[in-house]
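Notes from hallway chat w/ T.B., transcribed later so I don't forget. T.B. wanted the structure written out for a chain they're using in a teaching module, and asked if we could keep both sequence and structure tokens in one place. Agreed to drop them here.
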Amino acid sequence: MYMDKGFEILQEIRQEDEGIACFTTANNPYNQWFFLVPQGVEKERLNISGCIEETLHRLIDNDYTDDEIYFVLGTKRVDTLEEADDEEVTYIDLDYVIPDLLMTVDLM
């Protein structure tokens, strides 16, 4: 399923000094999405948006498709910034958004 595929993709690009965190969104709290984090970081000190953006760039740099990036981060690409200018959209970078608000974040 999506969760398994996303986790597997992250395992392929994860470095030894990195861990994995997961998040859920407000409108879909049953699906988990994943991102890379520095190994041993405390949840309270985690730069969530920076880690999600870094994960996006790592996926793009490793030639993953938009569909594969979706499996990891739950993102979609928008054509205009106006589409991303919504209270219930989390903008990442390079026209990628998470089409919802983050609800929970957990270190794995």
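Follow-up for T.B.: The chain has one domain: 2-107. Might be a good example for the class.
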